[in-house]
Amino acid sequence: MLLDRLHYGLRNLCRKGGRTLLTVISIAIGVTSVVLIGSIGEIGRQEIDRELSAMGLGSIAVSADQKLTQEEMTQEDLQLLQSYPKVQNAVPIVTQLSTIRMRGMIANAMVWGISQEDNQLISLELRHGRKFRESDLSGRAAVCLLDSQVAELFYQRENVVGKRLDLLIDGSYLPLEIVGVVSSGGSVLQNLVGDVIPSFVYLPYTTLQDYTGDPSFQQIAVTVQEGESTQVLAQRLEEAVNRQHQLDRGFKASDLTRQKDSLNRLLEIVTLALSAVAAVSLVVAGLGIMTVMVVSVQERTREIGIKKSLGATQGMILLEFLMEALLLAVAGSLVGLAAGLGGVWIGCQVFSLQMRLDIPLLLISILVSVLTGALFGAYPALLAARMRPVDALRCQ
């Protein structure tokens, strides 16, 4: 019986192919909107999370609280944190906004002073040349690593190892040799907000300290061993550094992991809110289904009367029209899902992003679409089921 209703439903929908197609498209638009917004939100959240982790926002940052003390982080503080139990690594943070000059062209740059290690502050993928050696740090060598995007900007190619750039420090341009080209953790953020986040250049932190004449660190980034609580360790590190400086308060340890988690939760809320707005189009599509089905009932009034006079029950008529509404909803959902996923895949290919899907959201959008079709199709189906055969047969 169910297969018969399905067959009749398909036949009746095909009879009005143009109207059926428009209704399916309206449903597909709603589902596509939800899929696109949900997937974009998920991909954006994952990429931003990866970028923030690569830029150090997955660790603990220890720094001086300028409101409480004039003291600064020193080499002794770095040694203390590196040797502290349960600390995996501690690296100094020395940064400065500056200007770089190559081939007669000038660009703003964020200059990072880093160590020779593959540190946890910034994820650097070596593309050409080499990274820093111990001798570069101990000798305060005039060398640098250049972000691959900056190399493309100045030379229209990545491999610029051996070239020189001039770095503006205290009003003077100082020459540096490019010993390596790297792909840095900020690349996606640079693509999205290139006018805000400048070009990245990396120096041995000792060299940058020597150029600026400041032996201190703005911050020290600490990564913890796997399984350890960053919140508890942050409190202990804060107390240890304050004791070393013989202070009750003055230095603070910020748990950047918690800040990153808070940002992730905010992004999830924004994604859900936008998806809910997009889901309004599903309600509009449901109204379209109801309109089409009401018109279909009016057009087939005499047919309904004949079926009832031949023994069709109210349940059979109800199921037939309800099946048509569900078929419209399912067809629109599948088309919308395919269109949405296709759009997401194309976008990921264009922007070189890894495709990520929020599977629960996709399933919910399809379920809501089908339930919407059933809900809005119920009223026309009830109209058809409750018709009296005599009244229906009078209709011309």
From TrEMBL:
- InterPro entries, alphabetized: ABC3_permease_C, MacB_PCD, Macrolide_Exporter_MacB
What is the recorded membrane topology of this protein? Multi-pass membrane protein
User: ABC3 transporter permease C-terminal domain spans which residues?
Assistant: 276-388
Q: Record keywords: Transmembrane included?
A: yes
Keywords, comma-separated and alphabetical: Cell membrane, Membrane, Transmembrane, Transmembrane helix
One GO molecular function term of this record is: transmembrane transporter activity
Q: Name one Pfam family in it.
A: MacB_PCD
Ranges where the MacB-like periplasmic core domain occurs: 20-239
Q: So where does this one cross the membrane?
A: 21-41, 269-297, 318-347, 359-384
Can you name a GO cellular component term?
plasma membrane
* Cellular localization per UniProt: Cell membrane
The text of the family note is: Belongs to the ABC-4 integral membrane protein family.
Q: Which PANTHER family match?
A: ABC TRANSPORTER PERMEASE YTRF (PTHR30572:SF4), MEMBRANE COMPONENT OF TRANSPORTER-RELATED (PTHR30572)
Please report the name of this protein according to its UniProt entry.
ABC transporter permease
The taxonomic lineage of its organism, from the top, reads:
Bacteria, Bacillati, Bacillota, Clostridia, Eubacteriales
